[in-house]
Amino acid sequence: MPANVLRELREGWGEFAGRTWVWVVVAQFALVNAAFVGAIAVLGPLVADVSFGRASWGLIIAAETVGLALGGLLALRWRPRHALGIGVGLVTVTALPIVGLALVPVVPVLVVAFLIGGLAIEQFGVAWDQSLQQNIPPARLAKVYSYDAVGSFIAIPVGEVLVGPLAHVFGTTPVLLGCAAVIVAASLAALSTGSVRRLTVGVPAVPAPQG
What we know:
The chain is an all-alpha fold. It has ten helices and no strands. The longest helix has 31 residues, at 20-50.
C-alpha cells in the first residue's frame, strides 16, 4: 500500500477516533442499521405474507419515503442549535415501525409508524451532516465520512444473517421486539454521551427587518 494512502488513513482515523461524538454515533448506527435492516428487510416481508400481503407492504415502505421527504422539508425550517443530540434522540422513534410489525401488523398503523420513522431518521441525517461539516476540518472531512460509512454499515449483513435463524428459534415477534430494543438502547447510550448532547451547529442569523 503506498505511503501516502497509509498517511491519509492515519490522518482520517485520528480525526475520527479523536472526536468522541463522532465514533459514538457511528457505533450507535452500527447497531441501529443492523437491527433495523434485519427487521425490515428480512422479517418485514414474512409478516406481510401472513397478514396484510405484499402489495400493502409496498405501500407501507412507500410511507417511509414520504416521511423522509417531510423530514427534509421540516429540516429546512427547524434548525436547532443542538441538532445532533436531538437527532440522536429521535432515532429511538425508528423502533416504532418494528414494534408495529411485531404487535399491530395492521396497514393503517404501519403506514403511520413508517411515516413517522422516516421523518425522524431524516432529522438525524440532516443533523449529522451539519455536525460533521461544521466541526471537522474541510481537508479531512472526506476521510471521516469514509470511516463513518464503513462503521455505520459494516454490521448490516450480520443483522440480515442473524434475524432469520433467531426468528426460527424464538419466533418472529420476540426477535422484532429485540431489534426494536437494540435501536432504543443504542440510541439512548449515544445520547447519554455529553459530547453528543452538547455539540452545536451554527444557526444562521435572522436578517433585521428593513424600513
